[in-house]
# Entry
Amino acid sequence: MILQGNQDLLVPAHLNFGTHVLNRLRKVNPDTVSLISIATGERITCVEFIQHTVSLSVALLELGVKKGDIIGIGSEKRNEFLPTALAIICAGATALPLELDSGRAALKHKLCLAKPNYFVCSRSFWKMYSDILQSLDFIKTFICFDVIDDIKLSINSLMSRDVNVSTFIPVFVQGHTHTALITYSSGTTGMPKAVQLTHLNCIASTTESIVYQNENMKTIYVIGEWCDVYDIYVTLKCICAGKTVVYINTIATPEAVLKCIQDYKVNMVFTASCTATYIAEAEDISDYDLSALNTICFAGSTLHLNTFKKIEKRLPKSTNLMQTYGSNETGSCTSTGWSPKIIRQGSVGKVFPGIMLKVVDVETRKVLSKNQTGEICARGPSVMKGYLGIDEKTVFDDDGFFCSGDLGYFDEDDCLYIVGRLKDVFKYKGIQVAPAEIETILKSHPDVREVCVVGRPAGDIGDLPAAFVVRQPGSTVSDRDLINFVAAEIPPHMKLRGGVQFISELPRNIRGKVLRQRLREMLE
# Structure
């Protein structure tokens, strides 16, 4: 069975992402504040966002930027980041956004995959990585957001003359094939892969949505990790709908997010699942005024049903909780906020317009029926062009569906449930063990706050299920207590023979996904 969104997706004939965004921004009140940096208080209005985009795009063309060029952007979160990326795309080049906390090995790996010939960076990024950047001979030109002695060109010097924004036309591209953005897979199980997104992919992921047309939603919080397409798409959809987006420049701790909601009277929040756990468990949530909050959308990993129920009890009754499923490779695939019908808790919702999803048997590749678990595969205009340097035959099936590596199933109401990752599944004595099943049981224990199960290598017999557990504050539950608790609920091959280790917190990436590989390394 193949499911698709219940509404058509309309895309403009020009298939130019820069044109698509600018046309929508020109309809917004020019004085509307588009972005607010909480750390600095700096704001950028809609008209300033447009002017930055257009002026820099013209300057880049005069500098010699052309179609086929790749321009890296390395910086901390700042208001200029997104309009700079859009300027690059309007110039016909490909934008390559990179976070300040990339890490040296990962950054070099990412740069060597994409090979940008221009690089825009901040003072902080240059200070951390200048030796790596200067060692790569494919980067020919450096441009800095700030004025520093080592780099001759700055963003402000390039944009020294006024450009008429009303007459500006982005460079023509073949939108269905030309790469607008290169981002990276999450790298939770290995080194990141370079994801190529066309103009059509980006347009399909930023079309208007009823969620953003709500007049009561004026101020929206976004994590602001604009190296990740989810934050890029959400932020652009918000500001194109005339909303104000606030973001935290430093690490967005759950406490900082709640303070942001209070201080800026935030109406809608897009955040990671780890924030959900904090809201569900923290004792001091009543210290924050969350009365303006209308909707929270969680992404990154699926929330446990118990967590959902706890959050509902702790937030104002009017607060709507949403769960979104997607990836850098596919854009958003499903959401509990899309369908007007009531979505069952525990699911990630129904299929987005323009997306087709199927669940297939991992071994036979046969399409499965409802309530049968298999690999989730996606096809549609938002699904990536492919990984840079990787044969598409290893990524897409014969029917053009992207093989996500996620395991899940559809229920009788066409709601999707995520069970786990194909790479996370391991075998004990030849029998498959799905960590998510054990995690679900452990999360139901009152003394368990968070948990992640991985396989402990055990030679010829395969892997032994091992659990990393974050206990509730004040809990004295022992490893033996939890081992016995699980053993009473599951088949013998899923017993926690690899043991239980207590840790203070689970390692996560910026999107809140647990870094299982790091936990596996802790077992070695």
In short: The longest strand covers residues 448-457.
